[in-house]
Amino acid sequence: MDAKLINPIIDAFMEVMPQMGFPMPKRLRVYLQDRNVVSNGAMLTVGFTQGMTGKVVYNMTAEAARYFASTMMLGVPVTKFGDMAQSALREMSNVLTARAATNFSTLGFEVDITTPELIIGEDQTLKVSDAQFLTVEMEIDGYKVETALAVDKDI
Predict the structure, then answer these.
(1) What CATH number does residue 135 fall under?
(2) Phi first, then psi: what are they for 2, rounded to 5°?
(3) Mind listing the pLDDT tens digit for each residue in 24-66?
(4) pTM for this model (two decimals)
(5) What's the rounded mean pLDDT across residues 108-133?
(6) How many domains does the chain have?
(7) What is the pLDDT of residue 109?
(8) In terms of residue numbers, what domain contains 138?
(9) Where do the H-state alpha helices sit in the chain?
(10) Bridge partners for 127 per DSSP
(11) How far apart are CA 13 and CA 22, in angstroms?
(12) Handedness of CA 19, 23, 24, 25 (dihedral sign)
């Protein structure tokens, strides 16, 4: 997979998160993973369709997920993942991925996205790809988000 494909994801974080009330994100590292993502506490998955098929997976600790949900809900404390907190997390992943899809268009890929899916719980394994895929680790206000990008074919 071409490493340049991770740039639209990184750019989406840099563009969108401050607009949603978060501090400016920092890119920590980019690395390869093989086939599966193991949940750190909460995972959000959004699929790509049309010009590029695959998925993006946002993986974070439960503590980080509570922080992101709370910030999305304008500071309302989040102690458990009720409907509102889950909706806030899905919306965050939806906005990030929609922006990334727009960014992919600058690379010549017209991309649609699917509805976000949320998985809550540690040590749950999600098969992301039949091959290796790229992951970018981002940090926002001290909280890390591992964002995996897997495309279904070489593009």
Answers:
(1) 3.40.1550.10
(2) -70, 125
(3) 999 999 999 999 999 999 999 999 998 888 999 999 999 999 9
(4) 0.94
(5) 93
(6) 1
(7) 87
(8) 3-151
(9) 7-16, 62-72, 83-104
(10) 36
(11) 10
(12) negative
